[in-house]
Specification:
This protein is mainly alpha-helical. It is built from twelve helices and no strands. The longest helix has 62 residues.
């Protein structure tokens, strides 16, 4: 091996990396705490990047609809006002949606919850009468539960435990209130800082992308820089398509349930439709969770309608699963059903609901890259295999 300056520099870098890696392994707790502290420092900017990504989906749609017309693009002022106007409209639409939810949807949900409380009050006496009839008409049930009913309780010790719990609970509640207030203030400040950062990113995104591309080209080999840029572009496209498709699918599904339940005069039609539409953002399992909750709500009022609701849910779910989801979401990520199930399961195990949402586009990116790599390697092997006989024939002719 020739020990020139470049090789010596590589060996020094390898030794330094090994020393740092071994040191980090022996002080893993300090390294993790340092990483957590750094993430806390940059969390407003990470939040801003996430906000910018979500707003960019809507902003890009508005740019295409409003400013990509050939009659409008010919004006010079279009290029200057396109970005700020689209950003302002996107933010206004999101704020309008929040206002509609707060002023229209939430009052209806409040009325539904109030009527649910009344239904529960009516249901409890009915359940008491049912249990009373069950015990009176079935002595064997009463005999089976008799050992539990004859358990002797130390009421004095129970009262003392309750009093001590309340005493400690007051101090814990005070400390929790202070900590919750601190978290709320910090979260509000982080959100506003992140929102301002998101607006800056969206207004200067082309310039920032050019700078990032120059940075990759300056410090990485050309092939590695192009590969990273391609993977980043694929990831952004997949996430954007998934967010758009998932939101559209949730709105369609929720609207279908509100419409059908309102036509058949089901109780809590608005509450159940909004709940199922919101939970439909959770892939695969979300709508079924909404079905269980909706069936329970209707059961409090009319058990027969609860069974009919389950049948209606299965019919709408089949329509949504076979017609709507494949066209709206499935085609947007290009992921087979078995991979979607794997992504939801792994993401839910690692990060809960957020993991379910993130892992589908992540697995879609991995699946696309893996498919491209497999196809390329198979093509290379086929080309080598087909080129070998031609070289042999050429060698025979030369001999």
């Amino acid at each position: 091996m020739n020990l020139n300056k470049e090789n010596v520099r590589r060996i020094q870098g390898l030794i330094l990396f090994t020393i740092l890696l071994v040191t980090a392994c022996f002080h893993l707790e300090a390294v993790l705490s340092g990483i957590s502290y750094c993430i806390g420092l940059i969390s407003p900017f990470l939040l801003g990047a996430a906000i910018a990504f979500v707003i960019n989906v809507l902003m890009r749609f508005l740019e295409r609809c409003l400013f990509e017309n050939s009659h409008i693009r010919k004006y010079k002022v279009t290029a200057k006002i396109k970005r700020p106007v689209s950003l302002l409209l996107a933010v206004c639409l999101i704020l309008w949606l929040i206002v509609v939810i707060v002023l229209y949807v939430l009052p209806h949900l409040g009325e539904a919850v109030s009527s649910l409380a009344l239904s529960v009050q009516k249901f409890i006496p009915q359940a008491y009468l049912w249990l009373n009839d069950l015990f009176n008409n079935n002595p064997e049930v009463q005999e089976a539960l008799e050992p539990l009913l004859t358990v002797q309780l130390d009421w004095g010790a129970l009262v003392n435990n309750v009093i001590s719990f309340l005493k400690s609970g007051i101090g814990n509640a005070l400390g929790s209130t202070i900590s919750v207030a601190t978290v709320v203030v910090n979260s509000t400040v982080n959100f506003f800082v992140g929102f301002v950062f998101a607006c800056y990113i969206l207004l200067q995104k082309e310039k920032l992308l050019r700078q990032l591309r120059k940075l990759l080209a300056a410090f990485l080999p050309q092939k590695a820089a192009e590969r990273i840029w391609y993977v980043g572009h694929l990831t952004e496209k997949t996430f954007s398509n998934f967010i758009t498709g998932q939101c559209v699918e949730a709105v369609i599904l929720g609207a279908m349930f509100v419409l059908v339940l309102s036509i058949f005069k089901f109780p809590y039609a608005m509450l159940i439709g909004v709940l199922i539409g919101f939970l439909a953002l959770i892939p695969i399992f979300g709508a079924f969770i909404g079905c269980v909750v909706g069936a329970f709500l209707i059961l409090m009022v009319d058990p027969l309608k609860a069974l009919i609701f389950i049948a209606i849910f299965l019919v709408i779910q089949q329509i949504e699963g076979n017609l709507i989801y494949p066209r709206v979401v499935g085609s947007s990520v290009g992921l087979p059903a078995i991979w979607v199930l794997a992504a939801v399961t792994i993401g839910g195990s690692l990060m809960g609901v957020l993991g379910m949402l993130i892992f589908i586009p992540l697995v879609s990116v991995f699946y696309t890259l893996l498919k491209q790599t497999v196809n390329r390697r198979i093509e290379e092997k086929y080309m080598k295999a087909s080129a070998a006989p031609k070289e042999e024939k050429k060698a025979e002719k030369e001999e």
